[in-house]
Amino acid sequence: MSLTGLSSGWSPGIQDQTILFYVADNSRLRGFFNNYIFICPYSRPGNSGVWQPIYPATNPSFWDAQGNSEVPRPSKVIGLTYGDQATQIWFISTVGELWMMFIAAGADPTNIGNWTKPQQWTYKEDYRVLDAAVTMLTDGNLSLTARPQFFLSTADDRGLGMHTVWKMNGIESGGSWSPIYPYTPPSDQISTLCGTPPSAAAAHIFAIESKVGGRIFTSWKIDPANEDSAWTEWSIAPSPPFPVEQMMCVVLTDGRLQQIANVKPFGGPVPDTNLYTRWKLTTEHGSNWSEWVPFQFLIGGAPVVLPFDNNRGLMTWTPWPSTTAFQSVGDDLENLVEWHKTNPVDSNAGWSQLDSDLDQPF
Question: Could you tell me the residue ranges of all domains in the chain?
Fold first, then answer.
C-alpha cells in the first residue's frame, strides 16, 4: 500500500487528544485502484494508536460485486471537531468533487458504523476542486469555538479559480452553512491553498501558484477580534528561492505562526533541500516575517539541513494543539514520519529529527 502524498488531515479531539486522518491507496493489496481514509488517535509526539480504515473500509455497502467503490475515491481529507465535540471530515475525490462525512458527539470515531455516509457538496459538472484549506473566523479567543471558513481552488472549462463557504451561525455542529460562492483569486494559476490552524489568533489564507512561478499570495481578516470583518485585498508574500509545491502553518507556543514549505525543481535548478521555513518575528498582529531559510532538524544535538530528496513530500496539515508536523518519505511515499518541537513549551526550541517509528496506517 502506498500513501498518496496529498492527504494529511487532523481533528482536535477530547482532552487534547488529536484524531489523525490519512488517505492511502490500496492498489497493491486489492489488485485495483481505490483509496481509503484511515483514522488514528494521537496524543503526543511519537505516541499514536492503531490506524483503522473508516471509509470505505470493510463496509459492504460501499462496494459492488466487482469490488468497485460506489462513491468517489478520496485524495485529500480535512477533519474538524466543533465545540460540542462532534466531528466532520471533508474529502476531495480523485475526480475533483467535495464530500462530507459526520460523526455525532461522544461516538467512537474509530467505529466505522458511527460515521454517516458521504454527502456531496460540489459537482464536477460545475467545477473540479483541486485543493481546500480551512481557517477559523475568531473573535480573538484561542479556542475551538470559532466558525470555520473553507476556501477551494477550482478548475472548469474557463481555467482556474476559487470558491468559499463558511459556517453562518452557531459554533456547534448543527449550525447552517452558507452557499458556496465564487471567490476572486489573486492569480489565474492558483492550485494550492494553506490556512492557519484553529489555534491561530487571526485568520489567514495563503494561495500558491504551484508548478508555475511559485508565487505566494496572502489575505487576512482586517480585525482579528471580529469574525465578521472584511478580508484584506490579496498581496504577494515573499517566496522561498524555489517553486513551492505544498505549504503548512503551525502555531508556536507563544502564538507566533511558522510556515514550512516543500519545494520542487519543476524543471529548474534542483533545490539544496526539500523544506524552507519562515516565522513571525513577534506575536503582534501584522508583525513582520523572518526571511525564508532552509529548515533545520536537531540531529545529535546539532542543527542539520537534510539534502534534497525528490521522493519526500510534505503533509499539509498538523494536529492541534501540538507543534508537530508529518511527512511521507520513500520511493513511492510509503512511510509516514513525524517531527516535533524538542521542547513543547519553548517556541524557540529546535525541531526533532524525523521519527520513523510512528505507527503506519497500513
Answer: 253-362
Percent of the chain with pLDDT strictly greater than 90: 21
DSSP notation for 85-145: S-EEEEEEETTS-EEEEEE-TTS-TT-GGGSPPPEE---TTT-EEEEEEEEEE-SS--STT
Residues 312-346 as b/e (b if ≥16 CB within 10 A, e otherwise) read bbbbbbbbbbbbbbbbbbbeebbbbbbbbbeeeee
Query: Is 60 in a helix, a strand, or coil?
Result: helix
Q: What is the pTM of this model?
A: 0.84
pLDDT in tens, 135-191: 888 765 545 457 889 999 999 999 999 999 998 875 666 778 999 999 999 999 998
3-state DSSP call for residue 30?
A: helix
Give the Cα separation of 192 and 247 in Å (integer). 8
What is the distance between the alpha carbons of residues 270 and 263, in angstroms, rounded to a whole number? 9
Confidence of residue 297 (pLDDT cuts 50, 70, 90): confident
Q: pLDDT digits over 312-324, tens only?
A: 665 544 444 445 5
Q: How many residues does this entry show for the chain?
A: 362
CA distances from 233 to 20, 57, 125 (A): 33, 43, 30
Contact 162, 154 (CB under 8 A): yes
Q: Three-state SS for 177?
A: strand
Residue/partner pairs of 349-354 with CB below 8 Å, 24 or more apart: 350/296, 350/297, 350/298, 350/303, 351/295, 351/296, 351/297, 351/298, 351/325, 352/45, 352/297, 352/298, 353/297, 353/298, 353/299, 353/304, 354/297, 354/327, 354/329
Q: Quick one: pLDDT at residue 8? A: 39
Q: Which residues of 41-51 are buried (b: 16+ CB within 10 A; e: fewer)?
A: bbeebeebeeb
- Residue ranges of E strands in 213-292: 216-220, 235-237, 244-251, 257-263, 275-279
